[in-house]
Amino acid sequence: MDGNGISGPPVGRVIGTEDATPLEFWVGVAPDRFLQLDDVVALSRPLPGGQVVHIYGIVAQVRARYEGANFDSDVFLIESGLLPAEVFETAQVTATRFEPEVFVPPRPGQEVTVAQGPDRDKALFFDRMTERLPVGLSRNGEPLFVNLEFLDGRRGAHVNISGISGVATKTTYATFLLHSLYNSGVLGNRSVNTKALIFNVKGEDLLFLDKPNSAIDDEQAALYSKLGLPAEPFRSFQIFAPPRKGGDVVVPDVASRVKGVTPFFWTLEEFCHEGLLPFLFVESEDERSHYTMVVHNVMVQLQKATPIGEGAVRVEDREVRTFRELVDVITFKVQNDQEWSGPAIGAGTVNAFVRRLYGAVRHVEPLIRGDQTAPEKNRINLDHQVTVVDIHNLHDRAKRFVVGVTIRKAFDEKESSGQSNELLFLVLDELNKYAPREGASPIKEILLDVAERGRSLGVILIGAQQTASEVERRIIANSAIRVVGRLDPAEASREEYGFLPAVHRQRATIIKPGTMLLSQPELPIPLVLEFPFPAWATRAAEAGKADDDDELADPFAGLD
Q1: Dihedral, CA of residue 126, residue 129, residue 131 and residue 133, to nearest 10
Q2: Strands, E, within 407-458: which ranges?
Q3: How far apart (Å, rounded) are the C-alpha atoms in residues 314 and 168?
Q4: Is 383 in the same domain as 364?
Q5: Higher pLDDT, 544 or 240
Q6: Which of 145, 215, 238, 286 has its CA 20 to 30 A from that of 13?
Q7: 409 and 498 housed in the same domain
């Protein structure tokens, strides 16, 4: 048939022993054919008056049974030839689309076919997507897409990815989405000015996105071709890493890569004048605790600090060049000056503030300093398409500080520029640590702002976590695209995964790495997809040895 009907081969007929509804129906599979989970099917139902309704759906379950058997033990008699019976397969189909939208059930006996070409596109709503972003391949190797309008902020935004650490390949899939965005042509001229800011929170796997993966084979490379993508690494790429502790020389704290990594830090002048102090604290859930009032009062006083060069400051009558010195000054002031601590603030509250502040010193001291010439060279910037900020070696408190300050600056710059067409993608794993369901903190407020207002500014959050049930609900709710990898069975039963049908929840507990379940607003059922092996190196061993610039550290250096 033509594009208005069904173009694929017949595979079976609607059965009459199960109810057929507009939402789901069962198909008896022909003896010489088969259906598997996620196959796309279609049929046509004529109506009185000559109108024809085309019904499309996806196979959600398949079962096989003996017809003629009454008891479980009959299988032995049937196999011995003593009892007549036949094996019969049926497939449960979840309806996805009706053209025209006349919601009638298919009738028993109607022929069902495999949807191919234009009819497959209709079944999956791909025909309505004027800007289609490739997101993976179906089980039979066909490209799958999402509508860019639900990702770039026009009709929705944000991606949330859940799954077990090390198995669900959450970060790998996030980088694959970025690769598709930059190389599919879907962004058009916007691709040049679209930026991605990725926080590397575990290991050093993301430090080699600009290196080809030596482990990729021809079969995997061919999958990129099916998606219309090149099997190549990211071209416009830069890395920032925190400086090593100790010493006056600022050297990036990474082990597997020598060159191409810029150490980052904030000057004491920036810390004081930009009001970065609150990012060192997580507010108490006990509202009777008032130490956060002290944080605000101290921040106001620090904004009065005078720059004295090299990022150092003078706080009232004392020159400060290290973060530890600044903490000593703050401690003295809040304990002796109500203008710093605030009126009617008790000694217990002041001591709570001081304890928390001193607890941060050893973790963030290398990141906040006033002892370097030309500190502007060590500021995190977005001069390249993809920027990786490595924080995996930092303590959780330092991680929160870096993520919070960096995202706030990027968000503020986007807000002041007013350029919503120039997209900024923020990729953050372990989202439950930075925006937990309970409690409050400055970084959580920033991420909520991104989730709720980011789409209007072109700021898109690609967040990932092991357990969506531990993430602030509003962030999850504002994610138009939701992706699930392998889940723990207990987690899969939580209400946060209510968008997954029961069968898909069960499948999420057994799917292999590289397989994801993707839900998007236009399609009423999640897509089960696979994505190719990364074309970029995910570790030093895959990147191999650099040509002549020796960018990769020798893993055997110093060993006999």
Answers
A1: -40
A2: 424-428
A3: 50
A4: no
A5: 240
A6: 145
A7: yes
- CA 508 to CA 514: how far, in whole Å? 12
Residue 168: its pLDDT value, please?
A: 66
Average pLDDT over residues 65-72: 91
Regarding whether 295 and 233 lie in a shared domain, the answer is: no
Residue identified by tokens 């679209």 is 194
Cα separation, 5 vs 423, whole angstroms: 39
- Going by C-alpha positions, the residue among 145, 218, 134, 222 that lies closest to residue 178 is 134
C-alpha distances (whole Å) from 162 to each of 179, 231, 310, 363, 496 are 20, 26, 43, 29, 10
Domain count, the chain: 3
Q: Are residues 391 and 502 in the same domain?
A: yes
Per residue in 343-362, pLDDT (tens digit) is: 888 888 899 899 999 999 99
> Does residue 257 contact residue 205 with C-beta atoms inside 8 Å?
no
pTM of the complete model: 0.91
pLDDT digits (tens, 9 = 90+) for 478-531: 999 999 999 999 999 999 999 999 999 999 999 998 899 999 999 989 999 999
Contact present, 429 and 464 (Cβ < 8 Å): yes
> Going by C-beta distance under 8 Å and a sequence separation of 6 or more, which residues neighbour residue 375?
265, 267, 310, 311
Give the angle subtended at the CA of 126 by the CAs of 123 and 131, to the nearest 5°.
170
Beta bridge partners of 27: 14, 91
Provide the residue range defining the domain that includes 31: 10-123
Report CA dihedral (510, 516, 519, 525) to the nearest 10 degrees. Answer: -50
The reply to whether 406 falls in a domain is: yes
147: in domain:
no
Contact at 8 Å (CB) between 66 and 87? yes
Same structural domain, 72 and 161:
no
Give 157-173 pLDDT, tens digit per residue.
Answer: 999 999 998 776 899 99
Nearest to 496, CA basis, from 465, 469, 475, 472: 469
506 and 435 housed in the same domain: yes
Residue 555 domain-assigned?
Answer: no
The 3-state secondary structure of 8-63 reads CCEEEEECCCCCCCCCEEEEEECCCCCCCCCCEEEEEEECCCCCEEEEEEEEEEEE
DSSP 419-430: -TTS-EEEEES-
Report the C-alpha gap between 135 and 531 in whole angstroms: 7
What pLDDT score does 289 carry?
56
394-443 pLDDT, tens digit per residue, is 999 999 999 999 999 999 999 988 777 889 999 999 999 999 998 888 99
Q: What is the DSSP string of 165-203?
A: TTTS-HHHHHHHHHHHHHHSSTTGGGGTT-EEEEEE-ST
Q: Quick one: pLDDT band at residue 560, thresholds 50, 70, 90?
A: very low
- pLDDT score recorded for residue 291: 77
Same domain, 422 and 462: yes
Specify whether the CB–CB gap between 181 and 193 falls below 8 A.
no
